[in-house]
Design goal:
- The complex is a heterodimer of chains A (332) and B (322).
- Helices cover 32% and strands 23% of the residues of chain A.
- With 332 residues, chain A is an alpha/beta fold.
- Chain A has a single domain (2-89, 171-331), classed as Rossmann fold, CATH 3.40.50.300.
- Chain A starts with a strand and ends with a helix.
- The model of chain A has no long low-confidence stretch (mean pLDDT 89).
- Chain B is built from 10 helices and 10 strands.
- The model of chain B has no long low-confidence stretch (mean pLDDT 89).
- In chain B, 32% of the residues lie in helices and 21% in strands.
- In chain B, the strands form 2 sheets. Chain B has a 6-stranded mixed β-sheet, sandwiched between helices.
- The chains are: A alpha/beta (332), B alpha/beta (322).
Chain lengths: 332, 322
């Protein structure tokens, strides 16, 4: 299991240190997809990067909390073992297929590099594996593709190559940060099917970072909704769609155009905007925008409480439905 | 209802080769595009990247000059106008851009950015009058006028997009060209902007040429829809008709590609195949035939343009199972 325990991240804004993620805990289990959903600026991408200790390069500081891979603390690892983990145990698929590939190396040499870094293979074996990986992600004319450079490929092809590279070191966990956002709709669906297929076949644990509830509906087993640096609701995907329980989740689902099928209807909106890190209000961070707030909402920090017994498929470990809201039970 | 914007068989091609290439290898980004926009209505152009939808918007704005065809704005032909003559007509057509971070000048105060159009199109206004108009327009677009002395970086994405809309509307155009106006915004902010556009249209009768790849947004806002593929329109009609009974295989494919709205609609995992992307575009006949599941021999010889002149869909084997 890949665990995040009480993660607090600090970034620098105008020279001042501010918290961007606070006391966040998540479990990513083998064979399951956990979606981390939220609007821009809520800290979801920072959290994803922290799982591989990538934020350190951009001045993100972890002030408390632990990342545990099969029980081993990532902080306790030296550079060499961390390098084995990145790509070998936990891989990342980035959002931007146009910038994530190196433009001056051929596709083949970039994949072979990853394979040989993580698996004990000679050049021939690595090349054979690269071909197989490209084939697995639905690419054709693989021989020719290996010799091509990224600039001659379409966005969809590049994203498939990035997915193949993420699989190259035979990882157990995948972190996918908005894997379909930069792609055309016609390509998106195929990419979703590809990711689901690989995840299931290889029994991967996946953290899916997204703002798109359509992608969540397509892929996730469990969902964690983030707002202003903390998880405000957590549950099985069916529970989140059937009975979203935090007022923020409810409002977010209702303001999608899909939820307003009536022609010319006025869309439901959430007034105001997401508070920037450093400007989080005390108490419930959503309270200033919440239509259901009461006086006590703004007094103390509110805990993420389990309020509904788990539902869904009982053969797999059931996910409790939790929400960070004082009024959750009475508002249902 | 009066026609405010009419595009007639527009074509625009660009050099495919680089700076050093000698050949005149040109690719038609837009070909044979004809569209009609009525006053107070929203016409959406939908398509994947490279389909020519943004080029069409730029041709309509006359930011580009077409190789062939005509652009009529409020009954005047503006296809080849230049300089001052063109500027006089620009008052009637304005544009809102996709990226609210890149489309506002970071060195200009909001009052100057929004008021700039007035300096050109209402030069007789005094500074005081101009500021008053800016305040009025910001208010209308949901921005507190007290903030007009600030700079763009002090605003969120949604606020900036409101400012972008105010800038476009201040010269009281008849037509607003919106190029992906909400695709850079968060869902909750997107809803605010869509509502704003809708209420402005209802109150003031603006016509929108709405460019988007997001079908759920288009379904919500559009009256008419044109689907583009490889520089051509493959199907057009009322939004209701396109979404209820699409005929062209490409339109159907596009509609099927929209992510599901609820996990219950998920396909079972064994039905999920790893498929290659199909990105081929045919150079003759129907451009979509290389990707089309229902393509037949005669698809290679048809003229999509001729078909579209007779029916709302450029396909000789349209799907008509209702």
């Amino acid at each position: 299991m890949l665990e995040v325990q009480g993660l607090t991240l600090q970034i620098t804004v105008d020279g001042e240190p501010v918290r961007a993620v606070s006391n966040l805990s998540l479990n990513i289990q083998p064979g399951r997809v956990l979606a981390l959903v939220g609007e821009s600026g809520c800290g979801k991408s920072l959290t994803a990067q922290a799982l591989l200790r990538l934020g350190e390069f951009q001045g993100v500081k972890k002030t408390s909390g632990k990342i545990l891979l099969e029980g081993i603390d990532l902080d306790a690892m030296d550079r060499e073992s961390l390098r084995k983990v990145r790509g070998g145990k936990i891989s990342m698929i980035f959002q931007e297929p146009m910038t994530a590939l190196n433009p001056v190396f051929s596709v083949g040499s970039q994949i072979v590099e990853v394979i040989r870094l993580h698996l004990d293979m000679n050049k021939q074996q690595a090349l054979a594996r690269a071909k197989q990986l490209l084939h697995d992600v639905g690419l054709q004319q693989v021989e020719q593709l290996l010799k091509q450079y990224p600039d001659s490929l379409s966005g969809g092809m590049r994203q498939r190559i990035l997915i193949a590279m993420a699989m190259a070191g035979d990882p157990d966990y995948i972190i996918a940060d908005e894997p379909t956002t930069a792609l055309d709709v016609s390509v998106q669906k195929r990419m979703i099917h590809l990711l689901r297929n690989l995840q299931r076949k290889r029994n991967l644990g996946m953290l899916l970072v997204t703002h798109d509830f359509g992608l969540v509906a397509e892929m996730a087993d469990d969902v964690a909704v983030m707002y202003a640096g903390e998880v405000i609701e957590y549950g099985a995907v069916a529970d989140i769609f059937e009975a979203p329980s935090h007022p923020y989740t409810q409002a977010l689902m209702q303001c999608r155009p899909e939820a307003n099928r009536e022609k010319h209807a006025t869309l439901k909106v959430i007034s105001g905007q997401v508070p920037a890190p450093g400007r989080w209000p005390s108490g419930c961070r959503f309270a200033p925008r919440c239509t259901k707030k009461i006086a006590s909402c703004t007094q103390n920090d509110i805990a993420l409480n389990c309020w509904q017994s788990p539902s869904g498929d009982s053969s797999i470990s059931p996910s409790p439905h939790m929400a960070r809201c004082l009024r959750v039970a009475e508002l249902q | 209802m009066t026609t405010v914007l009419q595009l007639q068989s527009l074509r625009k091609s660009f050099d495919r080769g680089g700076f050093w290439s000698k050949s005149d290898d040109r690719v038609a980004a837009v070909d044979a595009v004809s569209l009609t926009l009525k006053a107070g209505k929203t016409l959406a152009i939908v398509g994947e990247s490279g389909s020519g939808k943004s080029t069409t918007a730029r041709l309509a704005m006359r930011l580009l000059e077409p190789d062939h065809g005509e652009v009529h704005l409020l009954g005047h032909e503006i296809t080849h106008l230049q300089g001052k003559a063109l500027r006089a007509h620009r008052k009637n057509i304005q544009m809102v851009f996709q990226d609210p971070f890149a489309s506002l000048n970071p060195r200009m105060k909001i009052v100057d950015t929004v008021g700039e159009g007035l300096r050109v199109h209402a030069a007789n206004l005094s500074k005081k009058e101009r500021v008053a108009r800016v305040a009025e327009m910001l208010e209308l677009c949901g921005v507190n006028p007290e903030v007009m002395q600030r700079y763009p970086h002090q605003f969120s994405g949604g606020q900036r997009q409101r400012i972008g809309i105010a800038r476009a509307l201040i010269v009281q155009p008849k037509v607003l060209v919106l190029d992906e106006p909400v695709s850079a915004l968060d869902v909750s902010v997107q809803a605010q902007i869509l509502n704003l556009l809708k209420s402005l249209q209802q109150a003031h009768g603006f016509a929108y040429l709405f460019i988007s790849h997001d079908l759920s947004v288009v379904r919500h806002i559009a009256d008419e829809v044109a689907i583009m593929f490889a520089g051509r329109i493959v199907e057009q009609g009322s939004a209701e008709a396109i979404f209820a009974t699409p005929h062209h295989p490409y339109t159907i494919n596009l509609l099927n590609s929209v992510p599901i709205a609820h996990p219950d609609a998920r396909q079972p995992i064994d039905a999920v195949e790893v498929l290659a992307d199909q990105e081929d575009v045919a150079q003759s006949g129907c451009a979509y035939r290389l990707r089309c599941a229902s393509a037949q021999h005669d698809c290679a010889t048809i003229s999509a343009q001729a078909l579209l002149a007779q029916q709302p869909c450029a396909c000789i084997h349209p799907c008509i199972d209702e």
